[in-house]
What does this fold into?
Amino acid sequence: MKSAIDSSAGEDLGADFKKALDEGWLPIREVARQTGVNAITLRAWERRYGLIVPQRTPKGHRLFNAEHVQRILTILTWLNRGVAVSQVKHLLDTPQTTSVPVENDWQVLRNTLLQAIMQLNERSLDDTVNQAIALYPPQTLCEHLLMPLLADLEQRWQGQFGAQMERVFVHSWLRSKFGARVYHNNRQLRSTPLLLINHSDRPLEPGLWLTAWLISSADCAVEVFDWPLPAGELALAVDHLQARGVLLYSSMAINLSQLPKLLNGVNCPKMIAGPTVCIHHTELSAKTSEIADLSLAEDPLSAHRQWVQRGLF
It folds into this structure.
């Protein structure tokens, strides 16, 4: 493991740092891989809240041990209960004999975002999400903030005057926001990508871009086609990109009779994801036994977890 870490760092690590790795200490990149909390967030937790205090080499490299990793996992447990990151240190440092009731910080954040959306206030929307991204891991943020927010909005938009205006505003912002992050991450990577395709007639599928962001945040290159491909051209795209896998995302009903033809010649792991999996649950479940290497996922989080379990990144 050490040689992979050393080569990925791309810098002169120094004798002290290499000696610490030999002794079992972990660099921040490896801790991020084990816990799913990226290095930027780990540094923010240390700098702003003192949640994690790693060892430092004379050159300033952060080093972590097994106790640090366990503490990070405990922090994630509290965050997933809705505790604000600013309140976690007290809970970590005070022995808890009973379950502690906490104010759900996620609901507060969702209300803040909802107000920004109702006012079409892109700056407020962007600033609030930027602050959350700096403090919370992508999976936690999707599960407790972004996906519930989108679900709340879909309910709000049912028969609501101005619904299409808000929907276009939110979906355009989300595609721009997370598309830029995917693009930036791709520039840092040299690996073959996962190919994600909008397989519905609905433009700016928000779940597609959340899926792309989650996968990209795990240091896997992502290529997003925000429009369906006809049969034959999907296999051609996979061949050109040397894609390690293909995900078709849709929040709408799809033409199931076209799937065998569409996926013909696609010789890599395949996934169908999004609400369409619920719409066609019985039929698609049968397709997984008829089409080689095909799996299903109902939302961005389950899609990400399945790709991880299959070892695609």
In short: The CA atoms of residues 50 and 89 lie 8 Å apart. The domain at 185-309 is CATH 3.40.50.280 (Rossmann fold).
